[in-house]
Write a structure and sequence with these properties.
It is built from 12 helices and 14 strands. The chain is of the alpha/beta class. The chain has a 9-stranded mixed β-sheet, sandwiched between helices. The protein has a 5-stranded mixed β-sheet with strand order 2-1-3-4-5, with helices on both faces. Bound molecules: ligand AOF and zinc ion (ZN). The site of zinc ion has 4 residues, from loops. GO terms for molecular function: 5-amino-6-(5-phosphoribosylamino)uracil reductase activity; diaminohydroxyphosphoribosylaminopyrimidine deaminase activity.
C-alpha cells in the first residue's frame, strides 16, 4: 500500500464512522500529515456543522503549514451552510492536497480543485476513488437528481419466495439478517411500503436497534384503504406520510390528517405517481429511500427504472409452490434476453443467511 493510500484509508474510516448522520450531506473524512506525523484528523458529522477539512485544520493549527491534507471528497468551493473549504486549505499554507473523489455537487464539480491549483498547491486526485464513491452512492445520486437514492430490500427463501402459498412469512431470515435490516433503516431517510403490507402485517416500520433512529415512514395507498388504527398512524414512533392517487376519499383524508399524518395526492392517475413521490421526498432533503415491499410496489419501482440498488437476504430454506409469491411481481419479462441485468453483485454471509447487494441499470 502506498503512503497516500495509507492516510486516505484512515480518512475513509473516519468518514464512515458518521454513516447515518450526515444526510443529505456526504460522508467526508480528512487527515493532515506533516513530516511523517499526523497533525490533524476530521470528519463531517452533521449538516450545518463544519466540513471534515475544517475540523482537521483546527486540530492541526500551525502544524498544517507545509503539510499534506488528505480528503475523501474534493474540497468545496461554494458558500453553503459553511464556507468554502478549498479557500481555507489554501489559507492554511498546505503544500499538497490528496483527494479521493471529485464532488458531483453542481455547485462544486471541479471548482474546488481549480481553486487549489490556482493557489499553487499540488493536487493529487483519485487515491482510493472507488471506495469513496461507493461510500457516497446515496449523496452522489441525490445531489445531481434531487431525488433520493432508492434501495429495494427483500428477504427470500433459497427458492426465491417471500412467503408460503398461504402467505405465512414470519420469519424467513435469521436474527443476524434482521438486525442488518434495522441498520439499513437507521441509515435511510425514509422507508416505503404499499398499503397491502400494512393491511397484512400492521408493520411499524421503525428501527429496533439500541441508539437507532427511525426513518420517515411512507405508505403508498392510492384509495386510502389504510386502517385508522394502523400502528404507523397511532404509535407516534416517527412521522408518516401517505401518498394517494386522485380518487381518495376526502373525509378519510381529513381524519388521517387530524391524527397527525401528512397525506399527499399525486396527480395524473388513480394510481400513485412514483416520480412525484420521489420529487416530494427529494425536495424535503430525503436523500435515501428504502423500499421494503410488497411485490407489486417493488415491481412498479423496477419497471419504471426508479430503483438504484437491490439488497436481498436469502435464507437456506425451501418452501416451493407455484402460488407462493416472490419479491418482484408485476407482469414480468417475457423473453430471457430482456432480463434486467444487475451489476456489481456482492455476497456476504450473515449468520446462516446470505446478503446480496447489486445495482440496477442506470435509468
Ligand atoms: C467538503 N467537506 O466535509 C463536506 C462537503 O451546506 P454545506 O455548506 O455544508 O455544504 C454541503 C455541500 O458541501 C455538499 O453538498 C457537498 O458538495 C459539500 N460537502 N464538502 O469539502 C465536507 N461535507
Ligand atoms: Zn467544504
Amino acid at each position: 500500500m502506498s503512503i497516500h493510500e495509507k492516510y486516505m484509508r484512515l480518512a475513509l474510516e473516519n468518514a464512515r464512522a458518521a454513516k447515518g448522520q450526515t444526510a443529505p450531506n456526504p460522508l467526508v473524512g480528512s487527515v493532515i500529515v506533516n513530516e511523517g506525523r499526523i497533525v490533524g484528523i476530521g470528519a463531517h458529522l452533521k449538516p450545518g456543522e463544519p466540513h471534515a477539512e475544517i475540523h482537521a485544520l483546527r486540530m492541526a493549527g500551525e502544524h498544517a503549514r507545509g503539510g499534506t491534507i488528505y480528503v475523501t471528497l474534493e474540497p468545496c468551493s461554494h458558500h453553503g451552510r459553511t464556507g468554502p473549504c478549498a479557500e481555507a486549505v489554501a489559507r492554511a499554507g498546505l503544500a499538497r492536497v490528496v483527494v479521493a473523489a471529485p464532488d458531483p455537487n453542481p455547485l462544486v464539480a471541479g471548482r474546488g480543485i481549480k481553486i487549489l491549483r490556482d493557489a499553487g498547491i499540488e493536487v493529487i486526485e483519485g487515491v482510493l476513488r472507488e471506495e469513496s464513491e461507493r461510500m457516497n452512492e446515496v449523496f452522489n445520486r441525490y445531489i445531481v437528481s434531487k431525488r433520493p437514492f432508492v434501495t429495494v430490500k427483500s428477504a427470500t427463501t433459497l427458492d426465491g419466495k417471500i412467503a408460503t402459498r398461504t402467505s405465512s412469512s414470519r420469519w424467513i431470515t435469521s436474527a443476524e439478517a434482521r438486525e442488518d435490516v434495522h441498520r439499513l433503516r437507521h441509515e435511510s431517510g425514509a422507508i416505503l411500503v404499499g398499503v397491502q403490507t400494512i393491511l397484512h402485517d400492521d408493520s411499524q416500520l421503525n428501527t429496533r436497534l439500541p441508539d437507532g433512529r427511525n426513518p420517515l415512514r411512507v405508505v403508498l395507498d392510492s384509495k386510502l384503504r389504510i386502517p385508522e388504527d394502523a400502528r404507523v398512524i397511532t404509535d407516534g414512533e416517527a412521522p408518516t406520510w401517505i401518498f394517494t392517487g386522485s380518487h381518495a376519499d376526502p373525509a378519510k383524508r381529513q381524519r388521517l390528517e387530524e391524527a397527525g399524518v401528512r397525506v399527499f395526492e399525486t396527480t395524473g392517475s388513480e394510481r400513485v405517481n412514483l416520480e412525484q413521490v420521489l420529487d416530494m421526498l427529494g425536495s424535503s432533503e430525503i436523500s435515501s429511500l428504502l423500499v421494503e415491499g410488497g411485490g407489486q410496489v417493488i415491481a412498479s419501482f423496477v419497471e419504471q427504472g426508479l430503483a438504484d440498488k437491490l439488497v436481498l437476504y436469502m435464507a437456506p430454506k425451501l418452501v416451493g409452490g407455484k402460488d407462493a409469491p416472490t419479491f418482484l411481481e408485476g407482469l414480468g419479462i417475457a423473453d430471457m434476453n430482456d432480463a434486467i441485468g444487475l451489476t456489481g453483485l456482492r455476497a456476504e454471509p450473515l449468520g446462516p443467511d446470505l446478503k446480496f447487494e447489486a445495482y440496477f441499470p442506470k435509468g
